[in-house]
Known about the structure:
single chain, 352 residues, mainly alpha, 11 helices
Amino acid sequence: MNETLAGLRPAQRDALRLAGATIFASGAFALFIRKSTQDQWAAFPKLLVLAIPCVLLYGLGTGMLRIGRDDDAPGAEPTVPPWRAASLVLGLVLLPLALLQLVDTLGGDPNKSGHTAWVFLVTAGAAAYAAWVHGLRWGALLAGLSLIISWIAFWDAVVEPSATAIRWLFIIIGAIIAVAAFRLDRDGEREGPELVTAAGVAMLGAGITGLVAILGQVVAGTIASAFGSDADLTGAQQRQEWDVFLLVLALVLIWYGTRAVWRGPVYVGALALFAFIVSVGSEITALFDEGPSGDLVGWPLLLLLLGGAALVAGLYGGGGTAGPAQGEPGWQAGTGEVAPGSGGPPPGPPQP
């Protein structure tokens, strides 16, 4: 057995570490769910089921916990091998569950928003540490998402905000994360696009709050009608301005994501676009007024005309042949002109 282990190649060791971390964490999740649903264990044993894998995987992922053979090259550039990245992500997913179980063990109520706020704030800090100290790119995304949850939970514990207030809370935290993301992106930090993805998720939350509320109202109305009573469907609604918000958000995220190193913003933008299509296609805004009309006039015709005009302008617009872009052969730094002898078109006569 020892000879077999000694003969493992580095790629084989990494594959075993990746599989081991994933399977070990899956076993912890499964055991916790089973013992929680059956209510067979007390709070402390369930805490150990979550805390031990959390500390082990997070420690292995960050390198603060060294067990077995160390393959990290001394003095090498700080990179995160796939198995360490998987361990870090799994450890970060286990962290809020372990902290909430700790609250339960100490006699608190883990369902209270106040506990959710500080738990996910700690998780955001741990994810940010993994991202900016240990090079886990996904840590920036997890930090942003955890910060969003902490922000909403904090205000829910303080003022119990309405649906409209929740929308603006999503927009505020999304704007804060977006500012930080573009600051990092401007400095060339690779975590910038991940924070843009998190900001997009917050903005998407603002845009679909009305859709989620309406879905809940429709479900409640269906159940109430089945029992012969009337349901109140006058809560939060999806107004036209939020449809516009979703469309603009989708275009911005998709445009940015196609130019970024990572494609996370594109996926969130696609979700925003899907929500927009569902909203305007189903005429959600008219659901509680005169009802859907099914007319061509309105969003469908407007989108077809605007999209067609933009596509034609993009296909036929512009004049002449574009000069070489920055970094291409023929580009002369500082002037934007074609360098002599580069093979590019000669410069035209000086303009008055």
